[in-house]
């Protein structure tokens, strides 16, 4: 993927660039709003966006991307004290947010999930063993039989499959499930409840028990024994 990193902290920007480059992505880094706006014509797949830039608010990037109809995903990289800006960014059309400080593995998981949402539309399907998912229809099948999931359960399943064989932290899962601005504050109990219900429905439909609890950390979606 071609990724634009908009971050004015040189050390963080360099760390993100090095990590994503090692994952096979092509990255460009800018540290100002003006530079970011000029770079947007470069057909980037995803923009990683810090909101607090030295020459302006990163939300201007969101406005240009979404207002111009660009098929570019945006993940906001935000400090903990920027809740208002995060809400505004999501309302304007940003796809996700990640709270600083963050782990590179978590950032990579968010990227993979966003790519799934961007690229698996319409009639395209995601397959995992006996599972078939049609994102454009919010449809899930187990052995060709439909499974009735809530929107949150559906999003959670896609998030797990997009990051299969990776350990996902409870914090990361909570932030992903809270990407709609009205849902801030997902607790561990709510996360557990959604995962429990999703697992129960899938197993009842004849699906393998792929959602594994990683004690003290979070969960992993895997068919490994």
TrEMBL record:
Q: Kindly give the PROSITE patterns that the UniProt entry links to this protein.
A: OMPR_PHOB (PS51755), RESPONSE_REGULATORY (PS50110)
Tell me which GO cellular component terms the UniProt record holds. Answer: cytosol; protein-DNA complex
CDD domains documented for this protein: REC_OmpR_PmrA-like, trans_reg_C
Tell me the GO molecular function terms: phosphorelay response regulator activity; transcription cis-regulatory region binding
A GO biological process held by the record: regulation of DNA-templated transcription
* DNA-binding region, residue range(s): 123-223
- The name under which this protein is listed is Response regulator transcription factor
Species this chain originates from: Carboxylicivirga sediminis
Organism classification: Bacteria, Pseudomonadati, Bacteroidota, Bacteroidia, Marinilabiliales
């Amino acid at each position: 993927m071609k990724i634009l990193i908009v971050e004015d902290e040189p050390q963080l920007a360099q760390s993100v660039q090095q990590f994503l480059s090692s994952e096979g992505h092509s990255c460009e880094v800018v540290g100002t709003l003006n530079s970011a706006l000029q770079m947007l014509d470069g057909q980037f797949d995803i923009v990683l966006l810090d909101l607090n830039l030295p020459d302006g608010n990163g939300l201007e990037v969101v406005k240009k991307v979404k207002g111009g109809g660009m098929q570019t995903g945006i993940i906001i990289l935000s400090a903990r004290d920027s809740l208002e800006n995060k809400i505004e960014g999501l309302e304007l059309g940003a796809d996700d947010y990640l709270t600083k400080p963050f782990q590179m593995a978590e950032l990579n998981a968010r990227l993979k999930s966003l790519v799934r949402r961007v690229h698996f539309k319409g009639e395209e399907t995601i397959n995992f063993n006996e599972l078939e998912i049609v994102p454009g229809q919010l449809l899930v099948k187990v052995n060709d039989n439909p499974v009735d999931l809530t929107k949150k359960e559906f999003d959670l399943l896609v998030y797990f499959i997009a990051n299969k064989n990776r350990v996902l932290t409870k914090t990361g899962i909570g932030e992903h499930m809270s990407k709609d601005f009205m849902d801030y504050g997902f607790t561990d109990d709510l996360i557990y409840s959604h995962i429990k219900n999703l697992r129960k429905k899938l197993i009842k439909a004849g699906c393998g028990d792929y959602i594994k609890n990683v004690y003290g950390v979070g969960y992993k979606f895997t068919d490994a024994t």
